[in-house]
Amino acid sequence: MKQDKAATEAASLPSSIVFAARHLLVILLSLLIPSSIRAFPHRHDCPPSASLRRPASRLSSLVRRHNTSLNDHSSGTSVIRAIATDFDGTFLNSSHGCSPANVWAYREAMRRGYAIFPATGRSRPGAFNAMGQVLGEELRREGSPGVYLNGLLVYGPDGPNDLVFTRTMDAATSESVVEMCRSLEASFVAYSGDAILCEQRTHHTDRLATYKEPRPHPIGPLTDALRGRDTSRESSGTRGVRNGQGELLVNKFIILDEAERIDALRGWVEGRLAGKATITQALPTMLEILPLGASKGDGVRRLMEHMQMDLRHMLALGDAENDKEMLTLAGHSVATANAHASVRSVAQHLVSSNDQDGFSEALERLCGITQTPPPPSPAVEESRTTRSSRKVTTTLS
Ligand SMILES: *[C@@H]1O[C@H](CO)[C@@H](O)[C@H](O)[C@H]1NC(C)=O
Ligand SMILES: *[C@@H]1O[C@H](CO)[C@@H](O)[C@H](O)[C@H]1NC(C)=O
């Protein structure tokens, strides 16, 4: 109609041809602007996997906001609905604590409806202890999915009332581990569900507390507990998991000693338990004895299946060898800067180290979880991307 008006003006007043042309230009521009706005949302369809290593793609990750009604992207990668994070070396800093920025990002992810969960070698109480009082208490109270003990214990969204999977050592192997530790006069603990048990406390067993794992609970001779003959009236939290006969079921054992002694013992223990158990070491002072055939990646896969979610919708974060499997399984994977080179090479994205809030950086860049309010217009989005994500997170503390 405006165009008609301009045309009439041009016809009736030949001297105003220049004016009409200018008018037309304004009309054309106004037609162009809405189409550029319409084009903008297509950026939401950019797979966030377009590597963060390339700054140009940062815009698409920042622009993406969580939207549960979004469907799979045709390109093969897909929106993130679940977040599995390793704890030590990833979510936690090098002194096994977590920064306010990481706590904030974890809670905000929960609030926005992401299924976010620990995938850790820790016990469940040990993971919650390390998250800080407020968040730890919240998860304890409300329940949380989680992969604990490197996949030997998997809980669904309702926590311990929602056991997805557990693998325990067979009774004969458990007994031979206990006998072996006694003959070596070595300190050892047994993980059983959420409980950590020992025969008696020593300065070695108490070292677990420095990693914010619960202090092992002494229950006397473990062989009696393994046979269901212990008479102690323990509360459920310190009794460990029992079968119908009251026999203690053990997920894993840890031998704790000086690094040199652990070094000297390892080969011998491996020989004794060949074909019966897996021997691993995350720390030089601890030798772990695990049942055969369970892994963090396997636990994560079982949990995602339980929650009826596709692994393509999962973001996995990690730093260590035992995280590689889940990083490979996940549709989206992040390694922290402190990660082992072989771990960085399997991850799609790299973020800052665990001591520089790499976790919150990843959630900001891949899920748009940021404390700054959503921008009002595309122009503001553009300018925001020029700011470093580091600046945004450091304002939190
Ligand atoms: C979420 O995505 C759906 C489908 O693409 C869209 O219709 C809806 O407007 C989006 N909601 C928000 C809040 O972005
Ligand atoms: C780790 O986090 C805790 C809790 O925020 C803090 O007290 C500690 O200084 C941090 N350590 C490092 C190495 O950043």
Automatic annotation (TrEMBL):
Keywords: Signal. Pfam families: Hydrolase_3 (PF08282). GO terms for molecular function: magnesium ion binding; phosphatase activity. Residues 1-39 form the signal peptide. This is Uncharacterized protein. The lineage of its organism: Eukaryota, Sar, Alveolata, Colpodellida, Vitrellaceae. It comes from Vitrella brassicaformis (strain CCMP3155). Transmembrane segments: none annotated. Residues 211-242, 370-397 are annotated as: Disordered. It comes from the Eukaryota. GO terms for cellular component: cytosol.
